[in-house]
Amino acid sequence: MHKGFIKTAAWLGALAVALGAFGAHKLKELVSEQAVATFETGVKYQFFHVLALLFAGILYSSYSNKYILNAGRFFIAGILLFSGSLYVLTVKTGLVLSGLSWVGPITPLGGLCFIIGWVLLALGVKKA
Fold first, then answer.
1. How far separated are the first and last CA of the chain, in Å rounded?
2. pLDDT tens-digit profile of 6-65?
3. DSSP 8-state secondary structure symbol assigned to residue 26
């Protein structure tokens, strides 16, 4: 078991629930439907990858290798980059902020982190 991954998954999971509730109840009053959809995509992917991080943390007890360790790290990076950039884009839209043009290109990097995390998880289980 990797306690750090499990603790991080718990906190990020709680955050996903809070953000999801905010998105479902308050955000719709503040931004367009398209911005709400963008935000909801961030929450959805955060939740999926919180579960992946939790699994990596649990699997680490049986398959303690660098692949599982790095899979967890990439899941965390993916949540921060992918979901985080979608949250920032939603805020940018809601507040009609100029600038922040660098945020959009970060989203695919987060998606790439998710893919790498899943591949590393598969390799980590295979190596054991």
1. 15
2. 999 999 999 999 999 999 889 888 888 998 999 999 999 999 999 999 999 999 999 989
3. T
DSSP-assigned states of every residue in 30-80: TS-HHHHHHHHHHHHHHHHHHHHHHHHHHHTTTS-SHHHHHHHHHHHHHII
CA-nearest of 3, 128, 127 to 57 is 3
Cα–Cα separations (whole angstroms), residue 122 to 4, 6, 82: 20, 19, 21
Question: Do residues 53 and 115 make contact, with C-beta atoms less than 8 angstroms apart?
Answer: no
Range of the domain at 50: 3-127
Domain count within the chain: 1
Greatest CA separation for the chain: 51
Tokens 């367009």 sit on residue? 32
